[in-house]
Write a structure and sequence with these properties.
538 residues; alpha/beta; seven-stranded mixed β-sheet; 17 helices; 23% helix; iron; nucleus; Calcineurin-like_PHP
């Protein structure tokens, strides 16, 4: 079957689907499935805009609300993960995944589904070590900290995914797995994005948690976005035993969804011709969710996942064949995901803007039904209970929190030694959350939809690349001309300050000597929507 893969969508659904229709008209190619690798921006109304961690000038309604209201319907089944610029309050309603609109499915904090026999997994958000070991405690209305931490990857999601034993066909993450750049044309990457050089050379670019999952899951394909550059790599995995067959992963990072950008990829994926056309639950994943349900945490307290170190009575939560069989029997061997989408918030009406609409913590009926069916904890219900009890655990009130070093404090050590998310060099192709001079205004938003330019958008077909049967990576694409040793940059290197001639970097926190006057570098996307930035970049 043909699978279309898109990078950061940024709410431009009309443009994305128009491009797919153009593909069909010009080349008679119709994808059976569309995958989106984060920054989807399922914004329903003005309140959702306030829950999106971007500066106020980038808060635009875009076009998702038309699909949410039923005015339009996605022409192809769309499955997506969350990124770091999302309507977090909306996606939080579906921690285990669910429909955000008819024919548009969100995978949840982490999730695995099947379509036509193809197994598709994903993890939402980006890695930040100082939040990695916390529970999902955030809920709207968010404050200056939680509006960001809400989209940070948590160790429990990685732990769940690491319990999977069966082969994975496709996996998605928003940020790249750390070190993946050593398996592709690194020279070309640095030519296009020279400001990545320090992180690549110090091996701190990307998510260490995603890298851990890549080594464990060994999927056939891995798709990412976030860095707004197209990049291909081919990773041959080591075998654990002589009996194990060699496995390799074809990695592809996609550009953002904008005219004249190479943001769509079409690949041919082997599928089961006898399978139906419905999106289905994955029985092993459901069994893992049931097995790990007791580990659910909705507090800010940091904790480690069970491991074989003598401190835990149980550390293996993988699903047995019997547990998987029980899931199948519970579902009467019908794994079809019910089309039970329901509206849970008012939809934006251009004729009646509600600029003062406030976000509320909502328990989605889809999640309630899913949890009841499989005996799982409804995370939002648990947060709501803690909030009502006033226990302070999972508290949603706005409160002052001390800014922490992104690599973790002494009291909360990270299990990873480096955290690129706090040390990244400046990326002129991304949005920066303006932290200099105080907090951003969460109450400000633009309610006018961004104007659509279908004619201009359709004139260029460079937005699409059609891949052959196997997403082959040529020797020119997958290796450096200097044939550098892949693990040359495995050691950690201290990042140096960039030249003062370059655009100044924004920092927060204290320096190595504890001087609060020195601010710390943070990665943020900058200028995603600005047309003038597009012209400069292109």
């Amino acid at each position: 079957m043909k699978v279309a893969v898109a990078g950061c969508c940024h709410g431009a659904l009309d443009k994305m689907y128009e491009t797919l229709e153009l593909l069909q008209r010009r080349h008679n190619v119709r994808p059976d499935l569309l995958l989106c690798c984060g920054d989807f921006q399922a914004v329903r109304n003005e309140a959702d805009l306030r829950c999106m961690a971007v500066p106020a000038k980038y808060r635009h309604m875009q076009t998702f609300y038309r699909y949410y209201s039923g005015e339009k319907k996605a022409p192809v089944l769309t499955v997506f993960i969350g990124g770091n610029h999302e309507a977090s309050n909306h996606l939080q309603e579906l921690p285990y995944g669910g429909w955000v609109a008819p024919n548009i499915y969100y995978l949840g904090y982490a999730g695995v589904v099947r379509f036509r026999g193809v197994r598709i997994g994903g993890i939402s958000g980006i890695f930040k070590s100082h939040d990695y070991r916390k529970g999902h405690f955030e809920c709207p209305p968010y404050n200056q900290q939680t509006i960001r931490s809400a989209y940070h990857v948590r160790n429990i999601e990685v732990f769940k995914l690491k319990q999977l034993k069966r082969p994975m066909d496709i996996f998605m993450s928003h940020d790249w797995p750390r070190s993946i750049y050593h398996y592709g044309n690194k020279k070309q990457l640095l030519k296009m994005k020279s400001f990545f050089r320090q992180e690549v050379e110090s091996n701190t670019l990307g998510s260490p948690a995603a890298s851990e999952l890549l080594q464990h899951l060994k999927p056939t394909y891995w798709f990412s976005a976030h860095l707004h550059v197209k990049f291909a790599a081919f990773m041959q995995h080591e075998t654990n035993s002589k009996e194990e067959l060699p496995k390799a992963t074809k990695f592809l990072a996609l550009d953002k969804c904008l005219p004249h950008r190479d943001f769509l990829q079409i690949i041919d994926v082997e599928h089961d011709p006898n399978a139906g056309d419905s999106l289905e639950y994955d029985a092993e994943w459901i069994a893992v969710l049931k097995a790990t349900n007791s580990l659910v945490n909705v507090t800010q307290s940091t904790w480690n996942m069970p491991e074989k170190n003598g401190l835990y009575a149980k550390w293996d939560y993988s699903a047995t064949e019997e547990a998987i069989k029980e899931v199948l029997e519970e579902l009467n061997h019908d794994l079809k995901i019910p089309c039970n989408f329901t509206l849970t918030a008012a939809c934006y009406d251009p004729s009646k803007p509600q600029k003062n609409l406030e976000p509320v913590h909502t328990i989605n009926p889809q999640t309630t039904e899913f949890c009841a069916q499989f005996g799982l904890t409804d995370i939002n219900d648990r947060i709501q209970q803690a909030k009502e009890e006033g226990s302070g655990r999972g508290e949603c009130e706005e409160e002052e929190e001390e800014e922490m070093d992104s690599s973790g404090s002494a009291e909360e050590p990270s299990e990873y030694t480096t955290d690129n998310s706090g040390l990244s060099s400046f990326n002129p192709d991304e949005i920066m959350l303006d932290e200099e001079g105080g907090e951003e205004d969460l109450s400000t938003c633009s309610v006018d939809p961004s104007p659509d330019h279908p004619a201009e958008f359709s004139t260029s077909f460079s937005d699409i690349r059609i891949m052959p049967d196997s997403m082959a990576v040529s020797s020119d694409d997958a290796t450096d001309s200097n044939n550098e040793e892949l693990d040359r940059c495995g050691g950690s290197r201290q990042l140096q300050e960039r030249s003062s001639a370059e655009r100044p970097l924004k920092r927060i926190g204290a320096d190595q000597n504890g001087n609060s006057g020195v601010k710390k570098i943070k990665r943020r996307n900058q200028a995603i929507y600005a047309a003038e930035e597009e012209e400069k970049t292109d």
